[in-house]
Design a protein that fits this description.
Elements: H1 11-24, H2 30-37, H3 41-53, E1 58-60, E2 64-66, H4 79-91, H5 98-113, H6 117-125, H7 140-145, H8 147-156, E3 158-166, E4 170-184, E5 187-194, E6 199-204, E7 208-217, H9 226-229, E8 241-248, H10 250-258, E9 266-269, E10 275-282, H11 285-292, E11 298-302, H12 304-321
Antiparallel strand pairs: 1-2, 3-4, 3-7, 4-5, 5-6, 8-10, 8-11, 9-10
């Protein structure tokens, strides 16, 4: 079984990372550098010697410092480009993975170290006005345990044997051909062809309990990609395309008019202020949950299947809460 919980830098990458850290931060001792690089202090001492032997002017004064950084040319970023890159690096869900979390930290250090003087000066007084907070509902520890092995299997077209805890069917073992990993609807998922179900399925990574990489290789089916697989889906679930029509009233109607909720939606405004919302979606379960949240401000017109599901929900609510 292949597992990877930590991404180890090569010595070359680590030396470059240390250089960028020393260029951007002024009071890093061996302990701090060891923590940043995920190595021992002894390794850091050897790295400092290697830098000195390569004629890099490193000295110690309440932390390691560079006597000069003129040998490292500045990056040609203006402030807006730097701010955009910083925002993207800090908000990426990949920060929560062991492999890419460390890679993104190294990229950030390189960017900070390579800024030209004008950008450095503006950075000191600039206020962060824009933030991205991408919500995640996954277990970060469980999620990252198998990220690297899944990524390798996708790249190498290797069949996996997985122990998966499904919400609908419970724990079980399956053999799957993984195609790609995606962050969608607040968590990391991977899409794979399931030999048990004989169809493609979407698996949430933090629900994996075990992964074994087999020697078997698979041939990717043509036409299966991120764009085509989720096309028409409300969020994650797929299925046969179904046209839905809902009449929204009151504040709900304004919510519908003022925002976009599905790529293929069409909204018809009625004279009384209500709207008719139409869209073709693949899979009704997620749409069902969405429309229920609007309560009595939403009336489903089509399809009958969805109307019947809501009728059963209404009967349950009446039976459970009606007497109160």
């Amino acid at each position: 079984m292949r597992q990877s919980t930590r991404f180890q830098m090569t010595k070359h990458d680590r030396l470059l990372y240390i250089l960028n850290l020393l260029r951007s931060r002024r009071t890093l001792n061996a302990t701090a550098l060891a923590g940043e690089c995920s190595v021992t202090e002894r390794t850091i001492y050897r790295d400092i010697i290697s830098l000195s032997e390569a004629q890099v002017p490193v000295y110690y004064d309440r932390g390691y410092k560079l006597a000069s950084d003129s040998f490292l040319p500045p990056l040609n970023f203006n402030f807006e480009e730097y701010a955009a890159l910083k925002l993207a690096l800090e908000s990426s869900p990949l920060r929560r993975t062991a492999k890419y979390g460390e890679a993104l930290r190294r990229v950030r250090a390189k960017v900070e170290a390579g800024l030209n003087q004008s950008v450095r000066e503006k950075r000191r007084t600039a206020v962060d006005a824009t933030w991205l907070d991408i919500a995640s509902t996954e277990d970060p520890v469980a999620g990252e345990r198998f990220f690297a092995v899944l990524e390798s299997a996708c790249s190498e077209h290797r069949t996996l044997e997985i122990d998966y805890d499904s919400v609908s069917s419970g724990p079980g073992k399956r053999q799957v051909d993984p195609y790609f990993i995606i962050f969608r609807a607040h968590a990391f998922y991977f899409v794979a062809y399931c030999h048990t179900r004989r169809d493609f399925r979407t698996f949430r990574i933090d629900r994996l309990r075990g992964v074994t990489t087999t020697e078997q290789r698979f041939t990717r089916q043509k036409g299966v990609s991120v764009k085509t697989y989720f096309e028409g889906s409300w969020q994650l679930y797929t299925g046969e395309p179904v046209e839905v029509r809902v009449r929204f009233t009151g504040t709900a109607a304004r919510v519908i008019v003022l925002g976009k909720h599905h790529p293929g939606e069409w909204v018809e405004k009625l004279p009384d202020g209500s709207v008719i919302y139409t869209a073709t979606v693949r899979g009704l379960e997620e749409f069902y949950r969405w429309v229920v949240a609007f309560g009595e401000s939403a009336e489903v017109l089509e399809p009958n299947e969805l109307k019947q599901d809501l009728g059963r929900l209404g009967a349950f609510l009446q039976k459970t809460y009606g007497r109160n």
